[in-house]
Amino acid sequence: MYDKKVIRRRRAALAVLVGLSLVLLTAYFGESPAGVLHGVQRGAQQVLSPVESGASKALKPFRDLFNWVGDAFSAKGDNKKLKKELAQARSQLAAAETAVRENEQLRAMVGLPRRAGFPQGTSPVTARVIARSPTDWYSSVQIDKGKSDGVRADEPVITGEGLVGKVTSASSGTAEVTLITDGSSAVSAQIMPDGSSGILRPAVGDPNDLQLDFLQKGRKLAKGQVVVTSGFRAGRLESLFPRGIPIGTVRSVSPNEVETYQRVHVQPYADFRRMDYVQVLTARAPGTQQASVGLGP
Amino acid sequence: MTVSPSSILRVGLLVLLGVVLQISGLSQIQVMGSSPDLTPLVVAAVALWAGSIPGAVTGFCVGLLLDLALGQNLGSSSLVLSAVGYGVGRFGELRDPAHGLIAIPVGAAATIGYLVAFAAVSFMLQLEASISALVVRDALVTTLLNAIIAVPVFGLIRRVVRPVLLAQPAGRRRRAETRETGPIGLRGLEV
User: Fold this and answer.
1) Interface pTM (ipTM) of the complex?
2) Residues of B in contact with A29 (CB under 8 A)
3) Domain A123-291 superfamily per CATH
4) What is the model's pTM?
5) Measured between alpha carbons, how far is A64 from A55 in angstroms, rounded to an integer?
6) How many domains does chain B have?
7) CB of A75 less than 8 A from some CB of B
């Protein structure tokens, strides 16, 4: 058994230390930052700072060693985390690049109807391409605008570069656009400034090759000449496209000795594989102004 | 422990070394997102080998030095570490633990007690502070790390304070002399 005196002394020591701590705590909180205890603390920090600085330098190799070991253990987790962050950054980059491209396309679309020679009397409705045909044989896309937006069948569809197709069917909120690269498509077109007219058909499977047939022989045609819609109408091949919509440029001319017509290969302006936005040239109601997509020129 | 210049010097050096090592070295080592805390281990080791009063005084001094050096609320660490030192010291006096691995549970208990009590004091003093769940995780990791380093720390501190202790710690006590046995190996049948 312990002596009562020892017990009392022990308890007294604890009480003194706890009391001293509470007094310090209370006084420290009670005084201003310029008070005595704060001053003592600042002085102690000044005194201890060289010791801490020296110890910190001396212990740096040990710290580095331990941290290196810790880093090695956590490297696997870090690797996983960084891979996740990289994937996020990549998706953000893709989204940013997509936005830039969409912006360029929309700006081009705004500019195209303002060009000289572009057919007037239409009201462009901007639409987003929401679905694409996966085959070469059926070149069509679905857009997110339909009858409720004024889109009707047989209306021409353009991008910022030029003609891409026509609306073949429209529901209330969507529409099906058959591209001019589709095998069933035929567009009356003419070469500028020569004025030679013909029927533009696609080479199925190659969206970069359109063939302009039924051009009269003897016409001098050159590479790089511009091809636009002619607005031609003749029997079954009646053109639904107004005159003056750019289509592409002459890439090559195929003279045929046997035929009475000549064929021209046309490089389309539009990139059919990278369309995100298109414009449907809807018939403008009399007395209304041309619609805008809300972007500056 | 006798109060002598030698004991004061030894414990004082331990206190200074423990605090400086902690704030300049160990606190910057990150293991599993947290770092070991030497200060409760130093206090607990001194208290375990030297008793409750030296333990409480050591705790007070370590806490005061810590508060002074780090610019914390003066008295908060002292309050908590005094209690830790006293508690561990009483445990040592009452149970007289002799097991070689006693440092592990004592170190872990001292650490978790210090961290919880210090968190409680800090929370009471700063009512606007928010408590994250990470605090709990850090406390557990620190306790685990302290349990790992407790054996060498306790052993080192025992070597330092042993010369000024009144009696050898229980683990170092010499065994009592065994009685000799008789010719057939049975006690009480000595010839």
Assistant:
1) 0.78
2) 73, 125
3) Rod shape-determining protein MreC, domain 1 (2.40.10.340)
4) 0.52
5) 14
6) 1
7) no
